[in-house]
Specification:
alpha/beta, single chain, 6 strands, six-stranded mixed β-sheet
């Protein structure tokens, strides 16, 4: 049986981690994943937990509006939380089917002061990473988490568990 999934982003990291997570959650199915470019409806760099969650939800709903011929729609939005002591990065995953929704948040990790300073100047995290680490388009490859962990965890590996966790209501539908 085939499952069609639409991701509210064409970023290959988000598309690939979604495919990997769905293949784990539904091992007896053929998983087809397509990315579509849709707006998040929030800042380019969400700066709060709520704004990040809203961005993920908006991407999911926009993907469903644009391509309603699918079984699942997925939104993944990376965000920042800043306190007096440090800045943390994380992401929200929001998933819809025709009859259910699920959501989960990734783990958080602390950003270095140089990146924090750039983000606080209004620069998106991915661009700040590229500036500090002299890279190009890192958000479509290993991302901040990959750079900072020296590729022990890349961006796709970081997002994938949250996609699996957001699928809990779908793989346990009798409980939800």
């Amino acid at each position: 049986m085939e499952i069609k999934v639409v991701v509210g982003s064409k970023n290959p990291v988000k598309v690939n981690c979604t495919k990997a997570a769905f293949e784990k959650a539904f091992p007896d199915h053929s998983i087809i994943v397509e990315g579509v470019s849709v707006p998040s409806g929030v800042s380019d760099q969400p700066m709060t937990d709520q704004e990040t969650w809203t961005g993920a939800k908006n991407r999911t709903e926009a993907a469903k509006s644009e391509f309603n011929q699918a079984d699942y729609w997925v939104g993944i939005e990376g965000g920042i939380s800043d306190s007096k002591n440090h800045m943390e990065a994380f992401a929200w995953v929001y998933i819809l089917s025709k009859e259910q929704q699920g959501q989960a948040r990734t783990a958080t990790f602390q950003l270095p002061p140089k990146i924090r300073d750039l983000v606080n100047q209004g620069i998106e995290l991915g661009i700040a990473d590229d500036m500090v680490f002299n890279r190009q388009n890192s958000k479509q490859s290993n991302g901040a988490v990959g750079i900072l962990t020296k590729d022990l965890i890349d961006r796709a590996e970081y997002y994938e568990p949250a996609v699996v966790l957001a699928l809990i209501p779908f793989v346990n539908s009798e409980l939800y």
